[in-house]
Amino acid sequence: MFERFTKDARAVVLGAVGHSERMGAETVEEQHLLLSLLDREGSRASFALASLGLDRHKESVTEALAQARRRGGLSRADADALSGLGLDLSEIVSRIEEAHGVGALESEGKAKGRGKGWWSGFLGGHRPFTRGAKDLLTESLRIALAQHDRHIGDEHLLLALTARPGVPAEVLADHGVTYASLRRVLYGGGEAKAS
Protein backbone atom coordinates (compact mmCIF):
# COMPACT_ATOMS: atom_id res chain seq x y z
CA MET A 1 0.00 0.00 0.00
CA PHE A 2 2.88 2.40 0.72
CA GLU A 3 3.59 2.76 -3.01
CA ARG A 4 0.27 4.64 -3.25
CA PHE A 5 1.47 7.30 -0.78
CA THR A 6 2.52 10.68 -2.14
CA LYS A 7 5.81 12.25 -1.13
CA ASP A 8 3.97 14.35 1.49
CA ALA A 9 2.15 11.33 2.94
CA ARG A 10 5.39 9.36 3.15
CA ALA A 11 7.00 12.31 4.93
CA VAL A 12 4.16 12.28 7.47
CA VAL A 13 4.64 8.58 8.18
CA LEU A 14 8.41 8.97 8.53
CA GLY A 15 7.87 12.07 10.68
CA ALA A 16 5.55 10.05 12.92
CA VAL A 17 8.33 7.51 13.43
CA GLY A 18 10.61 10.41 14.39
CA HIS A 19 8.09 11.73 16.90
CA SER A 20 7.75 8.25 18.36
CA GLU A 21 11.52 7.95 18.74
CA ARG A 22 11.91 11.41 20.33
CA MET A 23 9.13 10.64 22.79
CA GLY A 24 10.72 7.33 23.75
CA ALA A 25 7.76 5.29 22.52
CA GLU A 26 8.27 1.74 21.34
CA THR A 27 5.40 2.04 18.87
CA VAL A 28 4.06 4.61 16.41
CA GLU A 29 0.60 5.77 17.43
CA GLU A 30 -2.09 7.94 15.87
CA GLN A 31 -0.96 10.90 17.96
CA HIS A 32 2.49 10.68 16.34
CA LEU A 33 0.87 10.91 12.90
CA LEU A 34 -1.04 14.01 14.04
CA LEU A 35 2.12 15.62 15.39
CA SER A 36 3.87 14.90 12.11
CA LEU A 37 0.98 16.42 10.15
CA LEU A 38 1.32 19.57 12.28
CA ASP A 39 4.99 19.79 11.22
CA ARG A 40 4.17 19.84 7.50
CA GLU A 41 4.40 22.95 5.34
CA GLY A 42 3.34 23.48 1.75
CA SER A 43 1.11 20.42 1.50
CA ARG A 44 -2.63 19.95 1.10
CA ALA A 45 -3.04 18.98 4.76
CA SER A 46 -1.04 21.99 5.98
CA PHE A 47 -3.15 24.27 3.76
CA ALA A 48 -6.35 22.78 5.18
CA LEU A 49 -5.14 23.12 8.77
CA ALA A 50 -4.09 26.72 8.15
CA SER A 51 -7.45 27.48 6.50
CA LEU A 52 -9.17 26.22 9.64
CA GLY A 53 -6.85 28.27 11.89
CA LEU A 54 -5.01 25.36 13.45
CA ASP A 55 -1.62 26.72 12.44
CA ARG A 56 -2.06 29.29 15.23
CA HIS A 57 -2.87 26.61 17.82
CA LYS A 58 -0.21 23.92 17.33
CA GLU A 59 1.07 24.36 20.88
CA SER A 60 -2.43 23.90 22.29
CA VAL A 61 -2.88 20.70 20.27
CA THR A 62 0.49 19.39 21.45
CA GLU A 63 -0.45 20.14 25.07
CA ALA A 64 -3.85 18.43 24.70
CA LEU A 65 -2.13 15.31 23.35
CA ALA A 66 0.33 15.37 26.25
CA GLN A 67 -2.56 15.58 28.73
CA ALA A 68 -4.24 12.60 27.05
CA ARG A 69 -0.98 10.61 27.32
CA ARG A 70 -0.86 11.47 31.01
CA ARG A 71 -4.35 9.94 31.32
CA GLY A 72 -3.05 6.74 29.74
CA GLY A 73 -4.34 7.73 26.30
CA LEU A 74 -7.97 7.87 27.37
CA SER A 75 -10.27 10.33 25.61
CA ARG A 76 -12.99 12.43 27.24
CA ALA A 77 -15.51 9.89 25.95
CA ASP A 78 -13.59 7.20 27.86
CA ALA A 79 -13.53 9.41 30.97
CA ASP A 80 -17.29 10.00 30.63
CA ALA A 81 -17.90 6.25 30.35
CA LEU A 82 -15.86 5.65 33.49
CA SER A 83 -17.73 8.45 35.23
CA GLY A 84 -20.99 6.71 34.35
CA LEU A 85 -19.65 3.74 36.29
CA GLY A 86 -18.84 5.97 39.26
CA LEU A 87 -15.11 6.23 38.52
CA ASP A 88 -13.38 9.63 38.43
CA LEU A 89 -10.50 9.42 35.96
CA SER A 90 -8.74 12.50 37.31
CA GLU A 91 -8.82 10.98 40.81
CA ILE A 92 -7.46 7.69 39.46
CA VAL A 93 -4.63 9.48 37.64
CA SER A 94 -3.81 11.52 40.77
CA ARG A 95 -3.62 8.45 42.98
CA ILE A 96 -1.50 6.50 40.51
CA GLU A 97 0.86 9.46 40.09
CA GLU A 98 1.12 9.84 43.90
CA ALA A 99 2.23 6.23 44.13
CA HIS A 100 4.30 5.91 40.95
CA GLY A 101 5.23 9.43 39.86
CA VAL A 102 3.91 11.95 37.36
CA GLY A 103 3.28 10.42 33.94
CA ALA A 104 3.05 6.86 35.23
CA LEU A 105 0.11 6.14 32.94
CA GLU A 106 1.76 7.42 29.78
CA SER A 107 1.78 4.78 27.07
CA GLU A 108 5.26 5.58 25.70
CA GLY A 109 7.69 2.73 26.06
CA LYS A 110 5.17 0.25 27.43
CA ALA A 111 4.23 -1.69 24.29
CA LYS A 112 5.84 -5.05 23.66
CA GLY A 113 6.72 -6.83 20.46
CA ARG A 114 7.48 -5.78 16.93
CA GLY A 115 4.95 -5.51 14.15
CA LYS A 116 5.31 -7.08 10.76
CA GLY A 117 3.99 -5.91 7.44
CA TRP A 118 4.54 -3.25 4.80
CA TRP A 119 4.83 -0.43 7.36
CA SER A 120 7.74 -2.03 9.24
CA GLY A 121 9.40 -3.29 6.05
CA PHE A 122 9.37 0.14 4.46
CA LEU A 123 10.73 1.74 7.60
CA GLY A 124 13.61 -0.70 7.84
CA GLY A 125 12.37 -2.41 10.99
CA HIS A 126 11.80 0.75 13.02
CA ARG A 127 9.15 0.94 15.67
CA PRO A 128 5.99 -0.97 14.83
CA PHE A 129 2.71 0.78 14.31
CA THR A 130 -0.08 0.22 16.82
CA ARG A 131 -3.31 -1.37 15.61
CA GLY A 132 -4.93 2.09 15.70
CA ALA A 133 -2.18 3.64 13.57
CA LYS A 134 -2.37 0.76 11.07
CA ASP A 135 -6.15 1.13 10.89
CA LEU A 136 -5.72 4.86 10.32
CA LEU A 137 -3.43 4.20 7.35
CA THR A 138 -5.98 1.75 5.94
CA GLU A 139 -8.76 4.31 6.48
CA SER A 140 -6.73 6.89 4.55
CA LEU A 141 -6.73 4.49 1.59
CA ARG A 142 -10.51 4.12 1.83
CA ILE A 143 -10.94 7.88 1.92
CA ALA A 144 -8.66 8.38 -1.10
CA LEU A 145 -10.55 5.73 -3.07
CA ALA A 146 -13.90 7.27 -2.13
CA GLN A 147 -12.63 10.57 -3.57
CA HIS A 148 -11.47 8.73 -6.71
CA ASP A 149 -7.91 9.78 -5.90
CA ARG A 150 -5.24 7.44 -7.22
CA HIS A 151 -2.76 8.25 -4.48
CA ILE A 152 -2.93 8.70 -0.72
CA GLY A 153 -1.90 12.22 0.24
CA ASP A 154 -1.31 13.77 3.62
CA GLU A 155 -4.81 15.23 3.38
CA HIS A 156 -6.22 11.68 3.38
CA LEU A 157 -4.23 10.89 6.53
CA LEU A 158 -5.64 14.02 8.15
CA LEU A 159 -9.20 13.15 7.10
CA ALA A 160 -8.72 9.63 8.48
CA LEU A 161 -7.62 11.07 11.84
CA THR A 162 -10.86 13.04 12.07
CA ALA A 163 -13.01 10.13 10.87
CA ARG A 164 -11.90 7.72 13.59
CA PRO A 165 -12.90 8.02 17.25
CA GLY A 166 -10.14 8.70 19.72
CA VAL A 167 -7.93 11.35 21.23
CA PRO A 168 -6.55 12.85 17.96
CA ALA A 169 -10.06 13.38 16.54
CA GLU A 170 -11.24 14.78 19.86
CA VAL A 171 -8.31 17.21 20.09
CA LEU A 172 -8.76 18.32 16.48
CA ALA A 173 -12.52 18.82 16.97
CA ASP A 174 -11.81 20.92 20.08
CA HIS A 175 -9.81 23.18 17.77
CA GLY A 176 -12.49 23.38 15.08
CA VAL A 177 -11.06 20.73 12.77
CA THR A 178 -13.63 18.07 11.96
CA TYR A 179 -14.12 15.66 9.10
CA ALA A 180 -16.88 17.88 7.66
CA SER A 181 -14.85 21.11 7.92
CA LEU A 182 -11.83 19.44 6.31
CA ARG A 183 -13.91 18.06 3.44
CA ARG A 184 -15.30 21.55 2.77
CA VAL A 185 -11.81 23.05 2.68
CA LEU A 186 -10.24 20.23 0.67
CA TYR A 187 -13.01 19.47 -1.80
CA GLY A 188 -15.15 22.58 -1.92
CA GLY A 189 -18.49 23.52 -0.54
CA GLY A 190 -18.32 27.26 -0.10
CA GLU A 191 -14.82 27.68 1.36
CA ALA A 192 -11.34 27.85 -0.09
CA LYS A 193 -10.34 24.65 -1.81
CA ALA A 194 -6.90 23.13 -1.32
CA SER A 195 -5.14 22.41 -4.59
Automatic annotation (TrEMBL):
Residues 2-195 form the Clp R domain. PROSITE patterns: CLP_R. Keywords: Repeat. The keyword Repeat applies. It comes from the Bacteria. Pfam families: Clp_N (PF02861). This is Peptidase. It comes from Streptomyces sporangiiformans. The lineage of its organism: Bacteria, Bacillati, Actinomycetota, Actinomycetes, Kitasatosporales.
